[in-house]
Write a structure and sequence with these properties.
With 714 residues, this protein is α/β, with parallel strands linked by helices. The chain has three domains: 79-135 and 352-436, Rossmann fold (3-Layer(aba) Sandwich); 139-345 and 552-576, Dimethylsulfoxide Reductase, domain 2, CATH 3.40.228.10; 586-713, Barwin-like endoglucanases (Beta Barrel), CATH 2.40.40. The chain is built from 27 helices and 26 strands. The radius of gyration is 25 Å and the shape is globular. Bound molecules: ligand MGD (2 copies), iron/sulfur cluster and molybdenum atom (MO). Residues 10, 12-13, 15-17, 44-45, 47-48, 177, 184 line the site of iron/sulfur cluster.
């Protein structure tokens, strides 16, 4: 036995727990929460343990694949890259950069080699057709934060340890472990907060796990958040509850905001959200009265038609009750590296812009450099100049994760060339002509670029690889650099170090560092704490940088140097809310849900997560079930104009009447994949029920919740 102990940041969700991994040779012996971790202090969930299964999964790709005559064949790295050159470059040369689209998915944010180097490839391509999972997720919040505070990543998080009242809208951190809020062990922190007299209120169409562990639960109509939020803001003005406190001299647009919300009293909003006016008024009063309170909203509020308005109004509430940038309220983390809101002149900046380009078919504006994911299929299908003829997919599985996967599948089949950087042959990558596999996370180093900007506590952590990478396999950052050189017409076969030095010059202070280590060190040394990689590396478990501190006005990067309370583009969208209020709300609505043993679409092949009862079930309120003739364990047909699916029924009094729930990320029964375990219990793809065009027009984010469906006994 030569047992070794390693420290590793878990890459499987936003909680980013520190793990203690014991290994012997090439074997993982055990995975536990790392007690010394400054952020997670020993916490982990069942998914953390599955890193062993992921590392050992026989279906995980370890060699490039090239499709020949419809069959994938193993290839060397040189052969695979040469095939990319042979197939991709003629498309670029003949049809121009927009003919090649690139799409990047969620796991990339947990792999610095992908997150830091994908932009290099995107720039080299020069295509307007850049897509990502952000428009299936948090783009509305990034847009509203950008408009209000001046940068896309200036998203405030609840300061739960010091709060007295937490109101949660459309998030289930008990299961998801937090999102746009890196908060390992939400359960423990919430329990401690309640034990010292704090209150938690959850507003959700389903009495979620988080709602069960709260003091109060209120059901809301799917998609109804904008009405509730307008009702709350209206009440704060109407009842004289606005107290900006320390923020008074830092806000702009208060009068415009007051005028803009005046047509939306709670009495008028109640029908849209299903929450009585008196309850809306009570919530507003409680938020205003609590010494330290915070309203937190997440994906349930983003994946809606009014996602950006919701995201904006949530921060507006926190500002109007004087709890933004205040202990126990919504506070801004200060990351040790890579945060734009710690760079440049403090207090003001260029702000953000959108719409520098538009999508060709639907004219959707570019937001944060991207087009909406649910425009990808039409860009491939619609002939004409600028039509997408090739796709580079990086760590994404839109055939399951994005709306209308069946249509996207057909569109991908029609491409002239598709390249995937991925670790599985799955629903999306089966359409590729070449697949280039990434390293197992345990073979890769890691430093979180994004999550310290969203963490409950300031910190800096680094993890080294647990295992050496297999001989001959490049790291993902090296693949991306070679591809970038290739599409720029440079000699992509040359020495990787020369390619790297040309793209990211070494720093004279640490010329020996290469790859992501070079970027991390530079980021840390130019960051607000003036750390270095050597210092962080020397401290397994990380360096604690303390509780969140007030950051207004220093953090602001708006041209005015103020918090913009009333961005004109958002006020201009309010009339659409009036129109939506007039729409009928009858019929069944479908919402999603997450499960502790899932990670979007790609972890159903891992034995420790796949075991246990079937989780891809349709939750139905018992009263609805009786009316519809549905029984526990029986089958239901869920259908609309987009699709008709058969789902196993599970009765649940947690569901609001008129609302049913299916998890996303299932449907592993498509031909041509290599996901043996997932294929045994494939489940169904709820996103097939979502038509492509439904999105928040401001941010381009897809509507993924509140889908109108018919439900019948099958
Ligand atoms: N209905 C509904 N749909 C949803 C959601 C919802 O709530 N409801 N949630 C949305 C959200 S929040 C998100 S973020 C998206 C996610 O959507 P995607 O970003 O498409 O993510 P996944 O479906 O998780 O697919 C991840 C892909 O990355 C690959 N992968 C995993 N690890 C690695 C690696 O280390 N290297 C490489 N190169 N590839 C890797 C996997 O094999 C898989 O192909 O789904 C969205 N879809
Ligand atoms: N176990 C597990 N953890 C995960 C993931 C996973 O797939 N599995 N995915 C990760 C990713 S990529 C992300 S982005 C995060 C997301 O993390 P969260 O934002 O916490 O996401 P969910 O758990 O989907 O919780 C969303 C909640 O919104 C509710 N909801 C649905 N529609 C509406 C609505 O119209 N209004 C309101 N108010 N609520 C609504 C749902 O019922 C649900 O309880 O989770 C991450 N963590
Ligand atoms: S909560 Fe998230 S980061 Fe922590 S162990 Fe589980 S999957 Fe990993
Ligand atoms: Mo996500």
């Amino acid at each position: 036995m030569s047992e070794q102990v390693h420290y590793r940041i878990c890459p499987l969700c936003e909680a980013c727990c520190g793990l203690e991994i014991r290994s012997d040779g090439q074997q993982v012996i055990s995975i536990r929460g790392a007690e010394q971790d400054v952020l997670s202090a020993g916490f982990l969930c069942p998914k953390g343990v599955s890193l062993k299964d992921l590392h050992e999964d026989p279906d995980r790709l370890r060699q490039p694949l090239i499709k020949r005559n419809g069959q994938f064949e193993p290839a060397t790295w040189d052969e695979a890259l040469a095939e990319v050159e042979r197939r991709l470059l003629p498309i670029l040369q003949a049809q121009g950069p927009d003919a090649v689209a690139a799409s990047i998915g969620n796991p990339a944010v947990h792999k610095i080699g992908l997150l830091a180097y994908f932009p290099r490839l995107a720039r080299a391509l020069g295509s307007r057709n850049i897509f990502s999972a952000s428009t299936l997720d948090q783009m509305p919040k990034q847009l509203s934060a950008g408009l209000m505070f001046g940068h896309w990543m200036s998203v405030p998080v609840p300061d739960l340890p010091r709060s007295d009242l937490l109101l949660i809208l459309g998030a289930n951190p008990m299961v998801s472990n937090g999102s746009l809020w890196t908060v390992p062990d939400y359960r423990g922190k919430a329990k401690a907060m309640r034990a010292r007299g704090g209150r938690i209120v959850v507003i959700d169409p389903r009495r979620s796990e988080t709602a069960h562990a709260a003091d109060e639960y209120l059901p809301i109509l799917p998609g109804g958040d904008v009405f509730l939020l307008l009702g709350l803001v209206h009440t704060l003005f109407d009842e004289g509850l606005v107290k900006l406190r320390h923020l008074a001299e830092h806000v702009a647009g208060l009068d415009e905001l007051r005028a803009a919300v005046s047509p939306y009293p709670p009495e008028r909003m109640a029908a849209g959200c299903g929450i009585e006016a008196a309850t809306q008024r009570r919530l507003a009063r409680e938020l205003a009265a609590a010494p330290r309170a915070v309203l937190y909203g997440r994906i349930g509020t983003c994946t809606q038609r009014f996602g950006t308005l919701n995201s904006w109004l949530i921060d507006v509430v926190n500002i109007l009750i004087g709890q933004l940038d205040s202990e126990g309220g919504a506070m801004f983390p200060k990351a040790a590296a890579f945060a734009a809101n710690t760079q440049g002149k403090p207090g003001s900046g260029r702000g953000i812009t959108t719409g520098r380009r538009h999508s060709r078919v639907s004219q959707a504006p570019e937001v944060y450099g991207e087009l909406p994911m649910n425009c990808l299929a039409e860009e491939i299908e619609t002939p004409g100049p600028g039509q997408v003829r090739a796709l580079i997919s990086v760590a994404c599985n839109p055939v399951l994760s994005a709306p209308d996967g069946p249509r996207l599948s057909r569109a991908l089949d029609g491409l002239d060339f598709m390249l995937s950087l991925d670790i599985y042959l799955n629903e999306t990558t089966r359409h590729a002509d070449v697949i280039l596999p990434g390293l197992s996370p345990l073979e890769d180093l890691h430093f979180d670029m994004a999550f310290p900007q969203l963490s409950w506590r300031n910190h800096a952590r680094f993890s080294a690889p647990v295992f050496a990478k297999p001989a001959g396999q490049p790291a993902e950052w090296q693949i991306l650099l070679r591809l970038a050189a290739m599409v720029e017409g440079k000699d992509w076969r040359q020495d990787i170090e020369a390619l790297e030095d040309a793209a990211f010059p070494p720093d004279p202070a640490a010329p020996e560092l290469r790859g992501p280590e070079r970027l991390i060190d530079q980021g840390l040394r130019h960051g607000p704490y003036r750390l270095s990689l050597a210092e962080v590396r020397a401290t397994p478990g990380g360096i604690d940088l303390g509780e969140l501190q007030p950051r207004i006005p220093e953090l602001l990067r708006t041209p005015s140097g103020k918090i913009e309370l009333a961005p004109p583009s958002l006020l201009a969208a309010l009339p659409e809310v009036d129109a939506a209020l007039a729409l009928p709300t009858e019929g069944m609505r479908l919402i999603g849900r997450r499960d502790m043993r899932s990670g979007n679409s790609w972890m159903h092949n891992l034995p420790v997560l796949a075991k246990g009862p079937m989780r891809c079930t349709l939750l139905v309120n018992p009263a609805d079930a009786q009316r519809l003739g549905l029984q526990e364990g029986g089958m239901a047909t869920v259908s609309n104009a987009s699709a008709s699916l058969q789902a196993q029924v599970s009765l649940s009094a947690d569901m609001m009447a008129g609302v049913v729930s299916l998890p996303h990320g299932w449907g592993h029964d498509l031909p041509g994949m290599q996901l043996n375990l997932a294929g045994e219990r494939p489940g169904i793809n709820m996103n097939a029920l979502i038509g492509e065009g439904q999105r928040d027009m401001l941010s381009g984010n897809a509507v993924l919740s509140g889908i109108a469906v018919n439900v019948q006994a099958a």
